[in-house]
Every structure is written in C-alpha cells, then in structure tokens.
Amino acid sequence: MSEESLKSFAREKLQILRDGNLLRSLIATERLPRTRTRQQSRDLISFACNDYLGLSHHPAVIEASRQATSTYGTGAGASRLISGNNPLYAGLEAALSKLKGTEDAVVFGSGYLANVGVVPALAARQDLILMDELCHACLHAGATLARCRTIRYRHLDLAELSELLRKHRSAHRHCLVLTDGVFSMDGDRAPVDDLLGICEEHDAWLMTDDAHGLGVVENGRGSGFVGGRAVPVPLQMGTLSKAVGAYGGYLCTNAEVAELIRNRARSLQYATGLPPGTLAAATAALELIATDRDLVRKPLERARRFTGRLGVAAPDSPIVPLVLGDAQRTMQVAAALRQRGFLVGAIRPPTVPDGTARLRLTFSAVHAEENVDGLAAAVEEVLPTR
Ligand SMILES: *Cc1c(COP(=O)(O)O)cnc(C)c1O
C-alpha cells in the first residue's frame, strides 16, 4: 500500500520533468588520460569536465595517492575530530593557506559539504545573508540551513548590493555576503576587490566560492587575486575536485575562524574524513599548481583559442557557455556534437535560470590544440547561425 503511493509520487514527479525535457540520466563514462572519454562504446574528446589541468591523471599525483593508500588504507575510518585526522591533512591545509595567502585552511569532505557547513556556522536567525543570484546551488543550500533572512541580488549588480546593505544591514546582527569567484555556468568573474570594499563599508563578511578559479585564473592562485594582487577576502572557500583533480573542499581564512569552523561546522564534525589517497593526491596537485606557471596558463589559452576561432568574446575563465535557451534544442545540439566526437555539457534548468539552457564548454591544459580547433569547426557546423 504505502509502497504504491510512494511509487506513484515518484512517477508523477518524473512525468513533470519528462514533459519539460528536463529528465536526467546517469551515463557510464570512462574518463581516460588527456580528455579522452569512452561513453556507450564511443570514443569522445571531453569538453565537459572540470579537471582543468588534467591532474587527475598526472603520474606524480597518482603515485602520491597510491603510496598513501598503501600506507594508510582506503578510508579514513572516522570523522576528523575522532580518529580520521590523518597527518596528511596538515600538509594539505598548509599548502592551501600558502597558495591563498591566508593564516589557515580547513579541509572538508567536498566543496558542497564546505558550503553547507561554513555558512550556517557563521550566520543564524538574527543575521542577514546577501548573495548573488547565480551562486552555486550549495551556497543556496548553506543559506537555507542558516535559517536567516536571505536576499538574492541581481547577478554582479554591485549597486543593488550596496542598496540592500544600506536598507537592511542595521536591522541585523551580522551580515554575510556570498558570491562565486568564477561563476560555474557562465565563466564570468566577480570583482572581488570592489565587493570587499562594499562589505568593509557595511561591516559585512565576504565569502567567495573559488571552485572554478583555483588552478586556472591569476597564475593558478584563484579568484581571490586581482591583477596578481591578493585581495584580503576573509572567507575563501573552494574545492579540491576540479582543477586539483582529487576530491574535497576547503575554507581558507584567519586562525580564529578556522578554529571556530573546526568546532562548529556540522558537515566536518559529523562526516568521515577524506580517504588518505585523496589527501595525498590533492597535496601533490597543489604543489604542481603552485610551481608550474606554464601549466596553469593553458586552460584559459585553450578557451581563448576556441572563442577566437568562433569570433565571439574572449572569456575570463576556461568556462565558455553557448546559451541556446531551449532545453530540447540544447540536448539536440549536444547530441550532434557527440556524433562528431565531442562530449560537451548540456545544462538545463534548474541548474541555470529558465530560458537559458546552454552548452557549457570547459577547456583543459591537456586538450590538444587540434581538438580545440576541431570542436570550433563542429560547433560552426551544428550552429551555423551563430
Ligand atoms: C562544484 C562546485 C561546488 C561543489 O564542490 P564539490 O567539491 O564538487 O562538492 C561548489 N561551488 C561551486 C561554484 C562549484 O562549481
């Protein structure tokens, strides 16, 4: 009986998605070195993943992971606060704070866990959260968990942010301002220096999500830098699962906040630590990001080569959106590119706002230039009106 009502609930929900061309499915995908990908026995070049530097297949990174796994086993065994705080955490957190120029860093199980842990640890009922409307879903989730007044400002509209602060800041105890550093679905950058200036004026705390900045903008040091200069953003969150090629999330911040987060972020306290092999992989990858200037320049170079071929505006990050609007057409165009040997992201609502379904192309240091040119030619073929 109850199983039947449960099933019919699921069926109804799925039908709504199907009717809107919004049903998703998981497709087995083998990610091989150098962006080669095998999907349903087809060989494709992937422009659909966030391994911007190819580090998930780098020999030194794999070897570090292998060694740590041999020594410490495959799992952490407990929360970091119980017995899961492997000695490798110290080196990883030191590498992160050094790269970002902060006093300390705290590593979480993932970027999603970092945001849903950090935001409610810093903001509660009496407080105010102001966030860019295009912030990543897990920042929205963190704000929901904080259970305080949350207002979304129009994307990158700093005048609206200032206005909201003038109007609402004084009625609240603390105020947290949330933004992506590089926006995940558009690839544009937030002006973190201007945002910090506005936050300083109103005693608001700025938190940036650098998931798509680390390793690929500003000599690899991420969106907390502007023109090579460190912007002292007090709360810099990010992930180890994109350019770093491993898994995990982090917050780079001052010593006091780091200690508070270790004590109060529930997603750190009540979740098992990362596998030792993952900690070692991330540490080895960060070493490459910190030292290989040539590597960290390449993803953006590849992206600009592509937009140059197409004659469209040069991007600020290795993420290039081709907004088509209609969800069904987006899926069709992605399928046509797949026929030509290229795997691209087809992004539909609610991941992006209604009416802005798009192809999301991501460029990697390990893409061969001829693959980039091949993709440009294929896009011109399947989207002749562009
Ligand atoms: C991917 C992503 C996250 C989540 O990071 P995971 O490590 O994959 O959980 C957070 N914020 C942004 C902007 C992202 O793109």
Describe the structure.
The protein is built from 13 helices and 15 strands. The protein is an alpha/beta fold. A seven-stranded mixed sheet has the order 4-12-11-8-7-5-6, sandwiched between helices. Helix 2 runs antiparallel to helix 10, helix 3 runs parallel beside helix 10 and helix 4 packs parallel to helix 5. It binds pyridoxal-5'-phosphate (PLP). Pyridoxal-5'-phosphate binds next to helix 4.
Which descriptors apply to this entry?
386 residues, alpha/beta, Aspartate Aminotransferase, domain 1, Aspartate Aminotransferase, domain 2, six-stranded mixed sheet, 13 helices, 42% helix, binds pyridoxal-5'-phosphate
User: What sequence of helices (H) and strands (E) makes up the elements?
Assistant: HEEEHHEHEHEHEHEEEEEHHHHEHEEH
Query: Residue share in helices?
Result: 40-55%
Report the top-level CATH class of the largest domain: Alpha Beta
Task: Summarize the biggest pleated sheet.
Answer: 7 strands, mixed
Q: Taking all residues together, what is the mean pLDDT?
A: 97
Low-confidence parts lasting 5 or more residues at pLDDT below 50? none
CATH architecture descriptor text of the largest domain: 3-Layer(aba) Sandwich
The rounded distance between the terminal residues' Cα atoms is 54 Å
Strand content: 15-25%
Tell me the structural class.
alpha/beta
CATH superfamily of the largest domain: Type I PLP-dependent aspartate aminotransferase-like (Major domain)
Total individual domains: 2
> What's the tally of helices?
13
Radius of gyration: 21 Å
Order of strands across the widest beta sheet? 4-12-11-8-7-5-6
